[in-house]
Amino acid sequence: MMHSAIAVDKLDNVATALRNLEQGESIRIDTGDNANEIAVKESIAQGFKIALEDIGEGQSVIKYGEVIGLATLNIAKGTCVHVHNIEGVKGRGDKS
Amino acid sequence: MKFMGYRRISGNVGVRNHVLIFPTVTCAATVAQMISREVPGTVCVTHQHGCGHLGEEKDHMIRVMSGFCANPNVAGVLLVGLGCELITPEVLIEHLRKTRQQVESLSIQNLGGTTKAVEKGIELARKLLSEAAETRREEVDLSGLIVGTHCGGSDTMSGLTANPALGIACDLLVAESGTVILSETPEMLGTEHILAKRAANDSVRRHIFEITEATEKRLKSTGADIRGTEPSPGNIAGGLSTLEEKSLGAIRKGGTSPINEVIEFAQKPSQKGLVIMDGPAHDIISNTGMIAAGAQLIAFTTGRGTPIGSPIAPVTKISSNSTLYNCMQDNIDINAGTILDGEGMIEGIGEEIFKELIEVASGKLTRAELLGHCEFAIHSIGPTV
Lengths: 96, 385
Fold this sequence. Notes:
The complex is a heterodimer. Chain A is mainly β. Chain A has one domain (about 5-95): Archaeosine Trna-guanine Transglycosylase, Chain: A, domain 4. Helix content of chain A is about 0%, strand content about 35%. Chain A has no helices and nine strands. Chain A has strands spanning about 5, 15, 25-30, 35-40, 50, 60-65, 65-70, 80, 85. In chain A, the strands form three sheets. Chain A has a four-stranded antiparallel sheet with strand order 1-2-5-8, with no helix packed on it. By secondary structure, chain B is an alpha/beta fold. Chain B has two domains: about 20-130, Sugar-phosphate isomerase, RpiB/LacA/LacB (Ribose 5-phosphate Isomerase B, Chain: A, 3-Layer(aba) Sandwich); about 140-370. In chain B, strand 8, helix 6 and strand 9 form a beta-alpha-beta unit. In chain B, helix 1 crosses helix 5. The longest helix of chain B is centred in the first third of the chain and has 19 residues, at about 115-130. The interface of A and B includes residues 45, 68, 81, 87 and 94 of A.
């Protein structure tokens, strides 16, 4: 069966869309032991990430059970998580 | 397990039987190409180096060039020099003697110009070809294989399909006492703690932190925002948001084995199993470095798609998604995107990749070979004098 989105680790607060997700639909995401129903709040293209919970500005974004960056804005559950609202901290010469 | 390879005098095993025409300096590149054009069956590279190197960069260039020419996929090499360069054929011959590589050489200045050098080169290349034709494939052990891994033009699916599937193939090769190289140090940033946990001993653990810290320091010293380069514009368009996210997906391609050694760029591993090579993430430079380190095969995952190959080593392409596979079928050997379509499992694709690599090692041509792709590049690490 083809999943709509995949969360790699149970600690993850984002999942990767495996198909284009439409605003208004509800998708099921298996995260380790739990299965979550998530209401998609905006259209999210295949390959892009969806927030599995509200992520506050400055909080860690978790994928693969590891920190992939920090939220630069408050991110609402069910919305797209990408370069417009998160940033990495590694190798940032502009921040040194 | 066994495959059909070419046993070399050095004891190493080749998966191809190439005669390589190699200019030791960029000034000899056109002559090298002219020779190769006249002798079908030879392969040729060109590059921008061989002169004006200082200190560490000189050692780096010699290591990459001599390592590449010594790769066991090369039955014999014709070194083409100008005569007044820093890295002459004689400099490389000194290194190639250690691996007992079959070498011929010429100097354009000594022979009296392009026409005479090409004439002599054709004669030497034909001699090397006829010697190479004497070698036959024979049954050899998989433990002699070194597979270089790379992910280039990644997307978010790379870390979920193609990379973990390749990781399974790498674990299978390590179980057969083969060697796997994981490189691209910039794409280890954010994963140091994970890799360090898998270090075979304290020295390897320290070495992992040394190369990642040095790389991050070097990147930061530019004062630039790494975003836009890592991840690249194509990565970002493919859904990757940060370097850390890209790295976490990238390291999965090496599998889950203990890390037995950290080697320099283009340095031959002294250990079997999984080793890390310190080097850039640039696709062609990274492949060149792993091939110069002795890798006879490259397993290359991609989400955005790339056509590249190597003049002397097969590059097997694995797509992370079926859209790419359907769009660039002539460039892709295996589609790991079936995992997303619900048709394949990561383990199954991993085994398929492992079997394909053995087939390719035994002579099956990759798409990149069929299309004639032969990209080659060496990076500078110091000022050009």
